[in-house]
Write a structure and sequence with these properties.
Elements: E1 16-22, H1 27-43, E2 46-51, H2 56-62, E3 68-71, E4 74-78, H3 83-91
Parallel strand pairs: 1-2
Antiparallel strand pairs: 1-3, 3-4
Helix pairs in contact: 1-3
Length: 93
């Protein structure tokens, strides 16, 4: 006799651990977005992107450094995102 199937619960997205601060028209931001998306997808880690142009204080803080990445609330990188370094930060300790 076949075992009854159990309803599957939808998987909850993992908490966002990476934040990418960027602005439209930034080619470095496009590159960073691709790296962040790929690494986070591989590790099943949530991430978010924030346009600094929507917040004057973020714009003043980051305009010379974008893209800027934060991991777990702490600044991780700026200008370029290295996939191996990001992966290490997300899997360490």
């Amino acid at each position: 006799m076949a075992e009854p199937t159990r309803p599957t619960r939808p998987t909850q997205p993992s908490p966002e651990r990476v934040t990418l601060y960027s602005k439209p028209g930034c080619h470095l931001c496009d590159d960073a977005r691709a790296v962040v998306a790929a690494v986070c997808a591989d590790l099943d880690v949530g991430w978010t992107e924030i346009d600094i142009q929507g917040d004057e204080s973020l714009y003043r803080r980051f305009w010379e450094q974008i893209p800027v990445t934060f991991v777990d609330g702490r600044q991780h990188d700026f200008w370029r995102v290295d996939a191996d370094r990001l992966r290490t930060a997300l899997t360490a300790g």
